[in-house]
Design goal:
The protein is mostly helical. About 75% of the residues lie in helices and about 0% in strands. α2 packs antiparallel against α6. About 10% of the residues are buried. The model has no long low-confidence stretch (mean pLDDT about 85).
């Protein structure tokens, strides 16, 4: 390089020394502050993603147990965790409205087991719940970057027959106990004389 060019660069740097000093001071002061702010933004995004994944995984793993407390808790978290995801919120609103309004109402458990129309309406509501849950999971999966199809989400569920049997027995026991306590059924007592 020519000496005149080097001298010109040095002279220019000396003239702008105050400017570069100011830039250096700003970088020293602002650098750590910006780094902390960027770290906070990254942590917030990671936390939001973890919360969304928790809800999605909880709903996926509890598809076969619609009354699971974990599932109900996850459903109730959707509004504030997925608040920016319009399609997820819309799918949740449809499901929530259905759960609150479309199931047949019965104040007396004993009436439900004897009324075929009630059982038919209940089964129909359950089928619609399954469809709406599938749509909700599908929208969540798209938001989270998973590639599930609706058929897989609906059909790829394992529920042991023992669970079904246990749930039915529990329900029947509650119905019978409710009938006894309401005075609609008698509790038979047998006294045995053992010798």
């Amino acid at each position: 390089m020519d000496n005149k060019i080097i001298e010109s660069i040095i002279l220019t740097m000396n003239k702008h020394n105050d400017f570069w000093s100011l830039i250096m001071i700003l970088a020293i002061v602002a650098g750590p502050i910006l780094a902390v702010q960027i770290q906070k933004i990254i942590e917030k995004r990671n936390l939001e993603k973890e919360q969304k994944l928790y809800i999605f995984k909880t709903l996926m793993t509890n598809r076969a147990t619609p009354t699971s407390p974990l599932r109900v808790e996850a459903l109730n978290m959707i509004d504030f965790v997925f608040y920016e995801e319009e399609k997820v919120i819309d799918a949740w609103k449809l499901l929530f409205d259905h759960l609150k309004n479309d199931y047949p109402n019965s104040n007396n458990l004993t009436d439900t087991t004897k009324n075929p129309e009630y059982l038919k309406d209940f089964k129909s509501a359950d089928e619609k719940t399954s469809e709406l849950c599938t749509n909700l999971l599908y929208e969540m999966s798209k938001t989270l970057g998973y590639k599930f199809d609706k058929v897989s989400l609906k059909r790829s569920v394992y529920k042991p027959q023992g669970w079904e049997l246990s749930e039915n027995m529990t329900f029947n026991n509650l119905v019978n106990l409710s009938s006894i306590l309401a005075g609609q059924k008698a509790l038979s007592v047998e006294i045995k004389n053992e010798k």
